[in-house]
Amino acid sequence: RSVTVSNTPNLVNPFYPGADPFPFTPDPANATFLPGANIFSLQPGYHNIPSVQEFSLGVQQQYGTRWSSQLTYVANVSRHLNITRDEDGPIYRPNCTNATCNSTAQKNARRPFNLQYPANPLTYAAISEVLPSSNASYHSLQAVLTRHFDRRFSLSASYVWSKAMAYGATVDNYNIRSSYGPSGDDMPQKFTVSYIYALPSINHFGFLGKEVLGGWQVNGITTLRSGQPFNVTSGTDTNFDGTNNDRPNQIGNPLLPKGRSRAAMVAQYITIAAFAPLPAGTATGEGNTHFDSIYSPNSFNTDLSAFKTFPLFERVNAQFRAEAFNAFNNVTFYGPSAVLSSPANFGRISSSSGGRVLQFALRLSF
Predict the structure, then answer these.
(1) Are 291 and 247 spatial neighbours (Cβ–Cβ below 8 Å)?
(2) Cβ pair 307, 320 in contact under 8 A
(3) Which of 47, 164, 212, 341 has the fewest C-beta atoms lying within 10 Å of its C-beta?
């Protein structure tokens, strides 16, 4: 267990004016705790060692002197990672209402330890228990096509089809599996192409052709990718355990028709009509909406750069660089507000990535 003491008058006996409870010998048949103590525990028999395994299998092929391809299965799995739940979480009852189960005292009255030891002078609240039960996985198929640099040009294109799964915030302390789903960084599809082109020297147009127009190297990276998952929550404590991250019932398709204008998509990316609050008296107090079940809009981005080196004197060169991040000023939208208890903002996108950024640099080397 861990004990936190605030406003202690001295470090000789941090518990003054009370007695120092240590050394402490636990009695499983008669557990006692200091009033106000924060209780932290490990699962009985905790012995699983967290592990991460990575593996891949790939095939490569060369086509002549310029082209090559690669097809690879890449994956990793994590097992027995630590996850924390409330071991003494309030037990849900189908007859619970805001009037009978929502106050702190009413929640504590439904905690197992208080139900088991009703004559105990202490009132137990949350007891944080660490379980080696959090698993995660990533599986992907990755394809790469490369044109090696030749005659001033090179190209590399890659496509990744993947799935990442993990545990999210605990909704039900007695069913942590209900919060297992796509990881927050899951990106089902991603296509990336990078390219380099070295402009030839221009011997025409005098100084303009030789020093201004020719000899540049242009680089670029273009990425098209899927959106990332977000969680729809009820915004209310439907299972009366003290947290408001519960999920509602899904009663329809939340996705709106494609082909709408950007303004319409931002104003309403998903429809609130596809979700409904839990009716009173449900068996578990949990909605049927899956964790991280909807994805934000797809994105498109291009970064470009160009640089050229100018010889000034013997062993003295100046390099000029121009870079454009998000060169075409495309907008990458993040997930919308998805809290059912806030209908005015539900489905509305209010955040996005930054716009175009231009950067110039001059480097002198000698």
Answers:
(1) yes
(2) yes
(3) 47
Omega before 121 within 30 of 0, i.e. cis: no
Q: What phi, psi does 142 have (nearest 5°)? A: -120, 125
Name the β-bridge partners of 224.
191, 300
Instruction: Provide φ and ψ at 212, rounded to 5°.
Output: -110, -45
Which residue is listed with tokens 């519960």? Answer: 246
**Residue 138 CA: distances (Å) to CA of 37, 143, 161:** 39, 16, 11
**DSSP β-bridge partners for residue 163:** 139
Cα 215 to chain center, whole Å? 43
- Interval 198-216: pLDDT, tens: 887 776 666 666 666 777 8
Q: How far apart are CA 140 and CA 186, in angstroms?
A: 11
Burial class (CB in 10 A: 0-12, 13-18, 19+), 232: buried
CA–CA separation, 238 vs 278, rounded Å? 7
User: 135 pLDDT exceeds 90?
Assistant: yes
CA distances from 341 to 232, 247, 275, 286, 344 (A): 11, 11, 11, 15, 9
User: Rounded to two decimals, what is the model's pTM?
Assistant: 0.81
Tell me how far apart the alpha carbons of residues 85 and 180 are, in angstroms, rounded to a whole number. 14
Q: Which amino acid would we find at residue 338?
A: A
Please give the Cα distance from 327 to 300 (Å, whole number): 11
Strands (E), 254-331: 275-276, 294-295, 299-313, 316-325
Q: What is the DSSP letter of 202?
A: -
pLDDT in tens, 63-115: 988 999 999 999 999 999 999 999 999 999 999 999 999 999 999 999 998 89
C-alpha closest to that of 176 among 188, 166, 189, 190? 166
Distance CA 296, CA 353 (A): 13
Phi, psi (rounded to 5 degrees) for 59: -130, 135
What's the rounded Cα separation, in Å, for the pair 320 and 307? 5
Nearest to 228 by CA among 299, 295, 159: 295
